[in-house]
Automatic annotation (TrEMBL):
<comment type="function">
    <text>Catalyzes 2 different reactions between oxygen and the acireductone 1,2-dihydroxy-3-keto-5-methylthiopentene (DHK-MTPene) depending upon the metal bound in the active site. Fe-containing acireductone dioxygenase (Fe-ARD) produces formate and 2-keto-4-methylthiobutyrate (KMTB), the alpha-ketoacid precursor of methionine in the methionine recycle pathway. Ni-containing acireductone dioxygenase (Ni-ARD) produces methylthiopropionate, carbon monoxide and formate, and does not lie on the methionine recycle pathway.</text>
</comment>
<feature type="binding site">
    <location>
        <position position="156"/>
    </location>
    <ligand>
        <name>Fe(2+)</name>
    </ligand>
</feature>
<keyword id="KW-0408">Iron</keyword>
<keyword id="KW-0028">Amino-acid biosynthesis</keyword>
<dbReference type="Pfam" id="PF03079">
    <property type="entry name" value="ARD"/>
</dbReference>
<keyword id="KW-0486">Methionine biosynthesis</keyword>
<dbReference type="GO" id="GO:0005634">
    <property type="term" value="C:nucleus"/>
</dbReference>
<comment type="similarity">
    <text>Belongs to the acireductone dioxygenase (ARD) family.</text>
</comment>
<protein>
    <recommendedName>
        <fullName>Acireductone dioxygenase</fullName>
        <ecNumber>1.13.11.54</ecNumber>
        <ecNumber>1.13.11.53</ecNumber>
    </recommendedName>
</protein>
<keyword id="KW-0533">Nickel</keyword>
<dbReference type="InterPro" id="IPR004313">
    <property type="entry name" value="ARD"/>
</dbReference>
<feature type="binding site">
    <location>
        <position position="113"/>
    </location>
    <ligand>
        <name>Fe(2+)</name>
    </ligand>
</feature>
<keyword id="KW-0479">Metal-binding</keyword>
<comment type="pathway">
    <text>Amino-acid biosynthesis; L-methionine biosynthesis via salvage pathway; L-methionine from S-methyl-5-thio-alpha-D-ribose 1-phosphate: step 5/6.</text>
</comment>
<keyword id="KW-0560">Oxidoreductase</keyword>
<keyword id="KW-0223">Dioxygenase</keyword>
<dbReference type="InterPro" id="IPR027496">
    <property type="entry name" value="ARD_euk"/>
</dbReference>
C-alpha cells in the first residue's frame, strides 16, 4: 500500500536541547519553530501511512490482539504486504496501564531496537522523537490514524502529550521483541 503523500505527513519539528526540556509532554519546539518535512523523515527511514482509525472499534487493551480480527481493509493490506504477524493494543492512561508513571518515564528514555518499531495510533496522541543525521531530536506528533514505522537501529523515544492518553497498536514481524538498548548504559528490559 502507498504511503501518505509528502504534503499529508505528520507534523514534525526540531526540538529544544535536552537540557531545556522541563516537561516531556510539552511540544518543546524551538523559537522560532523549525519544521521538519516528510522528505527528511523519509531519509532517516521513517515510513508513514494514514488510516481511518475512527471508522473501526478496537479493544482498549489486547495482549496479544488477534490480527485476523482486523476488518479495516487498509490495515489488512499493510499487515499482509509487510508481514506483520503479531500485534497488541495498549492504552497509555493511568487507569489502563499498570505502573503508568514509571512506564511513561521509561518510554521517554532514548533507545534503539534490533527490529523495526511499528505503531498504529487508534486514539489520543503523543510524540515520537527520532534522532536525525545531525544527532538532533526531531519530534513527530502522532494522532489517531497515523501508522508509523521506525527502522531498526534508529534512536528514538516516546511520550504521551498534554492530552495524557494514547491508544495504540504495536505490530511486529515475527514474535514481539521489546528489547531496548539504551545509550548510556546498555541495559535490557521488557515493557
Ligand atoms: C515504545 O516502544 O516506546 C512504545 O511502544 C510507546 C508506546 S506505543 C505509542
Ligand atoms: Ni522503541
Amino acid at each position: 500500500m502507498e504511503q501518505a503523500p509528502n504534503n499529508k505527513w505528520l507534523e514534525a519539528w526540531l526540538m529544544v536541547p535536552d537540557g531545556d526540556i522541563k516537561d516531556q509532554k510539552a511540544p518543546n519546539k524551538l523559537v522560532p519553530n523549525i519544521p521538519v518535512l516528510a522528505e527528511e523523515l523519509r531519509e532517516i527511514g521513517i515510513c508513514y501511512w494514514k488510516l481511518d482509525a475512527s471508522a473501526y472499534s478496537y479493544p482498549k487493551i489486547a495482549i496479544p490482539w488477534d490480527t485476523s480480527d482486523a476488518i479495516d481493509s487498509d490495515l489488512k493490506r499493510l499487515h499482509d504486504d509487510c508481514g506483520y504477524s503479531y500485534a497488541d493494543i495498549i492504552t497509555i492512561h493511568p487507569n489502563t496501564l499498570p505502573e503508568y508513571k514509571t512506564k511513561v518515564r521509561a518510554f521517554f528514555e532514548e533507545h534503539i531496537h534490533n527490529t523495526e518499531e511499528i505503531r498504529y495510533v487508534l486514539g489520543g496522541s503523543g510524540y515520537f522523537d527520532v534522532c536525525n543525521r545531525y544527532d538532533e531530536w526531531v519530534c513527530m506528533h502522532v494522532k489517531a490514524g497515523d501508522l508509523v514505522t521506525l527502522p531498526e537501529g534508529l534512536y528514538h523515544r516516546f511520550t504521551i502529550d498534554e492530552g495524557n492518553s494514547i491508544h495504540a497498536m504495536r505490530l511486529f514481524i515475527g514474535q514481539p521483541k521489546y528489547v531496548k538498548v539504551y545509550l548510556e548504559e546498555e541495559k535490557k528490559d521488557k515493557d
